[in-house]
């Protein structure tokens, strides 16, 4: 009897819009031989169905809220049920709310930290045992990870965690041929702003730095293939990273507060 072959999969969270949706399409286009099937994860089932219809590879839908612990368990059980090799894990699910910490509700704070940090970490933990040589983990952080940000305090803190976790994990697993890339985009024209803007508080100056999300993902994909631990799109965002290393954060925080006001 012929032995069943391993199914090589990519898992993409936040696949209903923005970076996650675009990354799923990029994998479908670029990974002809390295990926057999794409698992797409998101809360809006109709969006997942529309995405699946646009992809050429086999697609498995996981309509779920990753803030619910049973969601991670469901993915774990699906991995255990068959001969699966996870070649790419893209943690793109996340959100931020741009307002003062005082004006954030307790639920908003909990959900931000839970989705941006806990769910990302738990899913990575679940997938890692199924990752083989020359696999990739792509974690979407943000330029907000570089310095603390007033009126974005929780979001920036969660993305600092993602960046630190990604770089530390990469140092652990790259000896096994698994490579982790932290993607640090700046402002981009995605649905992120629909939720981020609360009471019109989003700083208008950030829109001068908007990037096309397709270009951000294209660079992230190639940087991941190249085994880079970080992917920063655009000269202005790279400049922000350099400034965060050479200028005291107290001064940068003062400038950010001034621009916010």
- The helix tally amounts to 9
How do the SSEs run, as a string of H and E? EHEHEHEHEHEHHEHH
Shape annotation = globular
Helix proportion? 40-55%
Beta-strand content bin: 15-25%
Describe the overall structure.
The chain is of the alpha/beta class. The chain is built from nine helices and seven strands. The chain has helices spanning 18-30, 45-54, 69-80, 106-127, 153-173, 192-196, 213-225, 235-246, 249-260; strands at 7-13, 37-42, 58-63, 84-91, 131-140, 178-183, 230-231. It has a seven-stranded parallel β-sheet with strand order 3-2-1-4-5-6-7, sandwiched between helices. Helix 3 runs parallel beside helix 4. The longest helix has 22 residues, at 106-127. The chain is globular. The chain starts with 6 loop residues before the first strand and ends with a helix.
SSE inventory with pairings:
Blueprint: E1 7-13, H1 18-30, E2 37-42, H2 45-54, E3 58-63, H3 69-80, E4 84-91, H4 106-127, E5 131-140, H5 153-173, E6 178-183, H6 192-196, H7 213-225, E7 230-231, H8 235-246, H9 249-260
Parallel strand pairs: 1-2, 1-4, 2-3, 4-5, 5-6, 6-7
Helix pairs in contact: 1-7, 3-4, 4-5
What key attributes describe this structure?
261 residues; alpha/beta; seven-stranded parallel beta sheet; 9 helices; globular
Summarize the structure.
The chain is α/β, with parallel strands linked by helices.
């Amino acid at each position: 009897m012929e032995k069943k072959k391993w199914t090589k999969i990519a898992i993409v969270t936040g696949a209903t819009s923005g970076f996650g949706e675009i990354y799923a399409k990029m994998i479908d286009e670029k990974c002809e031989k390295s990926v057999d099937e794409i698992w797409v994860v998101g809360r809006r089932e109709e969006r997942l169905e529309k995405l699946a219809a646009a992809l050429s590879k086999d697609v498995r839908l996981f309509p779920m809220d990753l803030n619910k612990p049973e969601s991670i368990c469901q993915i774990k059980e699906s991995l255990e049920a068959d001969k699966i090799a996870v070649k790419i894990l893209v943690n793109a699910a996340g959100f931020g709310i741009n307002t003062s910490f005082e004006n954030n509700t307790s639920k908003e704070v909990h959900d931000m930290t839970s989705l941006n940090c806990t769910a990302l970490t738990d899913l990575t933990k679940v997938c890692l045992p199924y990752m083989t040589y020359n696999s990739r983990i792509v974690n979407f952080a943000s330029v907000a990870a570089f310095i603390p940000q007033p009126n974005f305090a929780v979001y920036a803190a969660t993305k600092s965690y993602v960046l630190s976790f990604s770089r530390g994990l990469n140092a652990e697993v790259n000896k096994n041929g698994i490579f982790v890339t932290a993607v640090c985009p700046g402002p981009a024209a995605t649905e992120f702003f629909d939720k981020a803007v609360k009471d019109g508080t989003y700083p208008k100056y950030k829109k001068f730095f908007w990037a096309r999300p397709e270009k951000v993902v294209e660079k992230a994909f190639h940087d991941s293939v190249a085994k880079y631990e970080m992917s920063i799109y655009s000269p202005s965002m790279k400049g922000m990273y350099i400034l965060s290393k050479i200028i005291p954060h107290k001064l940068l925080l003062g400038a950010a507060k001034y621009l916010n006001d």
